[in-house]
UniProtKB/TrEMBL annotation:
Name of a matching Pfam family: ATP_bind_3
Domain comment in the entry: The N-terminal region contains the highly conserved SGGXDS motif, predicted to be a P-loop motif involved in ATP binding.
GO molecular function: ATP binding; tRNA(Ile)-lysidine synthase activity
Protein species of origin: Lactonifactor longoviformis DSM 17459
InterPro entries, A to Z: Lysidine-tRNA-synth_C, Phe-tRNA_synthase-like_B3/B4, Rossmann-like_a/b/a_fold, TilS/TtcA_N, tRNA_Ile_lys_synt, tRNA_Ile_lys_synt_N
KW Ribosomal protein (keyword) present: no
Catalytic activity: cytidine(34) in tRNA(Ile2) + L-lysine + ATP = lysidine(34) in tRNA(Ile2) + AMP + diphosphate + H(+)
Xref: SMART domains: TilS_C
Annotated function: Ligates lysine onto the cytidine present at position 34 of the AUA codon-specific tRNA(Ile) that contains the anticodon CAU, in an ATP-dependent manner. Cytidine is converted to lysidine, thus changing the amino acid specificity of the tRNA from methionine to isoleucine.
One GO term (biological process): tRNA modification
Identification of the protein by name: tRNA(Ile)-lysidine synthase
Keywords: ATP-binding, Cytoplasm, Ligase, Nucleotide-binding, tRNA processing
Chief subcellular location: cytoplasm
Family per similarity comment: Belongs to the tRNA(Ile)-lysidine synthase family.
Length: 449
């Protein structure tokens, strides 16, 4: 058992000389075995060892019993120990969480506090192969994809799990051989919790009636899926560099991505959404599929995702943006400066500049107005007086929906003289009959002009 665990620690480079390891110890068999093995491993590697015990304030005297036992054990083995106490039931109620979620939050908060106080490097947790099997079956029943079926990772950031290579029965046998006592948490026997139902009702049937190696087989399969997940994630990182970039405060996902294999599309979108949302807690496979379906459709359609993320298809790209409370969806841009001059037309050459335009001044009927589009706005698009709605014109020009709403127009009532950055109305063009020209120039609207 010791050699097996120590080889696993070395395989994943969990502990190096000089590390300061914080072990989470509840007093149960798993965490007591972890502590005993880490204490033994100190004979091979020079590292410091400390303990955190979390009182969830749920089990009354039983919880006090557990805390006192861990304290006595650490004193006996001369290991520094710190107890933290959290009102987990209250946390669950106020945070709209399950007791399991609130308990997990309390434990990780305690680890962080002690790590900062004790200058710790890594947190060692006592998950083992039975936990991997339970997680696998739980996620399988919920309809998870490859990532969910990978089970529990041996190393994740500053968290290490030295016991993932052994089963619960091996842990209990080791403690019995060493004569080390441990405690039993009564809540672990209650089948009201989903995990406990899998632990006490599902896995025993698989082990005793189907295959006694069920747990190790599931753990091995989860490990193979973890390797596949790592490989696909590495490919997704390369594709993300090719197809995803940030533009004007939004994330642009090129339509070419959706010509790749669907599983790679999923991995790229998952990576992208995770970075945009700051995590994937509320984003599932259905949300990613909705974006893939959106990419197959036409422009102008929207999908709303958790975390105030919005997906929109605009011509050749999928755009993702995270709306912030109380803030505009797009960052403000400098407002352009307008200049105007009027002069007599004497057949001068008309400038062909994108942001400088000439108009027949005498045809202007109302006072000019610079604004964004309104219902009823139109352009004259040919010499015979044919009209087109501004909305239809912008769609024909493939102007994205977001830009259509913010594009500046030079308007004479509902008649648009100029869609800034695009065309002017045929009606206001300078001709041989023009007597007076109105020159309008926009500066700061484009970096090139």
């Amino acid at each position: 058992m010791e050699n097996k665990v120590f080889a696993y620690i070395r395989q994943y480079h969990m502990i190096e000389d000089g590390d300061r390891i914080v072990a989470g110890v509840s007093g149960g068999a798993d965490s007591v075995c972890l502590l005993a093995l880490l204490k033994e491993y100190q004979k091979q590697t020079d590292f410091a060892l400390g303990v955190v015990h979390v009182n969830h304030q749920i089990r009354g005297e039983e919880a006090r019993r557990d805390a006192d036992y861990v304290d006595r054990l650490c004193r006996l083995w001369k290991i520094p120990c710190r107890e933290y106490s959290y009102p987990v039931e209250q946390m669950a109620k106020e945070g709209h969480m399950t007791l399991e979620e609130a308990g997990r939050k309390a434990r990780y908060d305690a680890f962080q506090r002690f790590m900062e106080e004790w200058n710790g490097d890594k947190v060692a947790l006592a998950h083992h192969q039975n936990d991997v099997a339970e997680t696998f079956l739980y996620h399988l029943a919920r309809g998870s994809g490859i990532r969910g079926l990978c089970g529990i990772r041996p190393v994740r950031e500053r968290i290490i799990r030295p016991l993932l290579g052994v089963e619960r029965k091996e842990i209990e046998n080791y403690l019995e051989q060493k004569g080390i006592k441990y405690l039993t948490d009564s809540t672990n026997l209650c089948v009201d919790y989903t995990r406990n139902k899998i632990r006490h009702q599902v896995l025993p049937v698989l082990v005793h009636d189907i295959n006694e190696q069920t747990i190790s087989h599931i753990a091995r399969t989860a490990g193979m899926l973890l390797e596949a997940d790592n490989f696909l994630d590495e490919l997704a990182g390369k594709l993300k560099e090719e197809y995803v970039r940030e533009e004007k405060g939004r994330i642009r996902v090129s339509k070419e991505l959706f010509q790749e294999k669907e599983i790679l599309q999923q991995y790229v979108l998952r990576r992208t959404l995770g970075e945009l949302a700051g995590g994937l807690k509320d984003i599932g496979a259905d949300h990613i599929r909705s974006l893939m379906d959106l990419a197959k459709g036409g422009s102008g359609k929207l999908v709303s995702l958790p975390g105030r993320i919005q997906g929109e298809m605009e011509y050749q790209a999928l755009w993702l943006a995270k709306r912030k409370k109380g803030e505009a969806e797009l960052p403000e841009t400098p407002r352009p400066a307008w200049s105007w001059r009027r002069f007599s037309y004497e057949n001068q050459p008309i400038p062909e500049k994108k942001y400088t335009k000439w108009f027949d001044y005498d045809k202007i009927e109302d006072s000019l107005n610079v604004r964004t589009r309104r219902p009823g706005d139109y352009l004259v698009i040919n010499a015979s007086g044919g009209r087109k709605k501004i909305k239809d014109y912008l769609i024909d020009c493939k102007v994205p929906r977001r830009e259509r709403e913010e594009l500046l127009l030079l308007a004479d009532g509902s008649h648009i003289l100029w869609v800034v950055g695009y065309r002017i109305s045929e009606y206001y063009k300078v001709t041989q009959e023009t007597k007076t020209v109105l020159e309008v120039r926009v500066e700061g609207g484009n970096q090139h002009e």
